[in-house]
């Protein structure tokens, strides 16, 4: 686990005199690279790894430049906040449907991007610099993902802006983790009751029973396997509801380069399930330190009854246990399978804050007026235990439409 002195997981009891602290903002990748040894010693999440951060800044056309805050104490860098300035679009959604997408200049703090030491003085200094940047009209809004729900830093981001610039829609999100056992058998015995063990083993046998000799599992990890992994993953992803929504794994240069970087760094674990050499399910994972992070998943809907996603997940758990990986991170958001298998969780959120300018205030007002009714409806559905049913119905409406598009593309 990350030490309590790091930004995201605790506070030092004693605060230091702010006169001993200085702050610097890095706006060029060359300056970021000069900080490599310090950054590498602080990073604990793959999204904030210096090489991954640099790759994203170079790859995404909407990114204007890095915006990395470094706090120094008596000339020694003690805290890094990894961010980037983007020419982006603020998505206003109702459920899965985007109804409004205005262009904005956005300052984004990446997930896991607050690294190093912390104190009340450090937090105050960081937040003051961020909102000074907004006040100077250099950005329309700030977006900070992965803030612990009960942290002081989150409360500062929420309360420091004026009432017209605050985020009133931020909501808590569960982030599940799982302690990996020594073996798959131990996982099945210790994590599941008899009924669930039968269900899990059945999921692993069903496909092989109906397609004897045609089922094959593969784990692709090497740089020379990236092209095949990418192509086979895209073939499955195109048939999922996530593809129809424009989320999940997409066929683009960034994802190919992410896989290539992960393979070169020794992080990549790409699990694919094949039926007669045709890919039908995938899990893309990043092994970072002693934790395996689940990044993307998908399966061909025609094989839903075989629960192939679960079968491939259990295969991955077994192999990671053999590799002595200690923990599995399910990633952002809640889902039934995460609650079923997870044994640890924490609560986090994504916070927005808007610039104290006419444009910033207008953006916040329109976002609030548009999404507040949808958020209220979501809470009602959640209380009535209907939210997941509505989501499932929405997904089934997306997938067939996407398949029709694919047929048209194939015939053209």
Overall, the morphology is globular
Relative strand content: 25-35%
Number of helices: 14
Main sheet specs: 12 strands, mixed
- Euclidean distance between termini CA atoms: 52 Å
Query: What class do helices, strands and sheet pairing give?
Result: alpha+beta
Strand order across the largest sheet: 1-2-3-6-7-14-8-13-12-11-10-9
Number of strands: 14
Mean pLDDT reading:
87
The whole-angstrom Rg is: 23 Å
Q: Secondary-structure element order, as H and E?
A: EHHHEEEEEHEHEHHEHHHEEEHEHEHH
| Low-confidence region ranges | 1-6, 8-16, 400-412
How are the secondary structure elements laid out?
Layout (H helix, E strand, L loop, with lengths): L20 E6 L2 H6 L1 H7 L7 H10 L3 E11 L2 E14 L2 E3 L2 E4 L2 E14 L3 H16 L5 E8 L3 H8 L13 E7 L4 H8 L2 H17 L4 E6 L5 H12 L3 H5 L7 H13 L2 E8 L2 E11 L2 E9 L8 H15 L4 E3 L6 H6 L2 E11 L3 H26 L3 H25 L1
Parallel strand pairs: 6-7, 12-13
Antiparallel strand pairs: 1-2, 2-3, 3-6, 4-5, 7-14, 8-13, 8-14, 9-10, 10-11, 11-12
Helix pairs in contact: 3-10, 4-5, 7-11
